[in-house]
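The authors assume throughout that readers already know how a fold can be written as discrete tokens. For illustration, here is how one protein appears when written out as sequence plus structure tokens.
>
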Amino acid sequence: MTAEPFKAEHRWPVPPQDGYTVDDLFTLPNLPPHTELIDGSLVFVSPQRRFHSMMIDLLVGGLRRAVTPEMKVEREMTVLLDSRNGPEPDISVVRSDAVTGLEQTRFQAADVLLAVEVVSPDSEVRDQDVKPRKYAAAGIPHFWLVDLAGSDRHPVVRVYELDPVSKTYALSGIHHERLKTAVPFTVDMDITLDALRAL
């Protein structure tokens, strides 16, 4: 007679009646990497496509060459919007004085100048609808949405600016081969498939 193989039982956290807060996001044990908090609910990230990772690398490199000394480019850091929302933009450009050290885990929305989301199949609705609305309501002045387009599936970057009156984003440009914009700082970079393949 052989023993039954031991199966570890996974216990999912049980949410509080009113949902989680940002304090919970940073104190709950054993959360998977890149867990986000949206409207008091924990959101777990699925494995990403290669495009997602490479596009982040391409943009981070270009942005770091373009930013002024008063700004820093951060990858996959939580941004605290309010007590029930702590999303993790793929890329954030933050004020340099908001960077406190290597142990830092989050930024305040007021310190973020630009939030960038690279769309993934599992996060499409969050990236295209939920997060932009929340970033705008929190006053983040610039938002970029990155996706694949066309029959050749090339990168496209949609650039948005915050309308301070309506607290919504207005589309200010759609970029297919070169990402060229003057706000929040001057950027001129190649975003073609060839640029991605060269990484």
Observations:
- The mean pLDDT is 92.
- DSSP finds four helices and twelve strands in the chain.
- The helical segments are 22-27, 50-66, 124-137, 193-197.
- The first helix runs from residue 22 to 27.
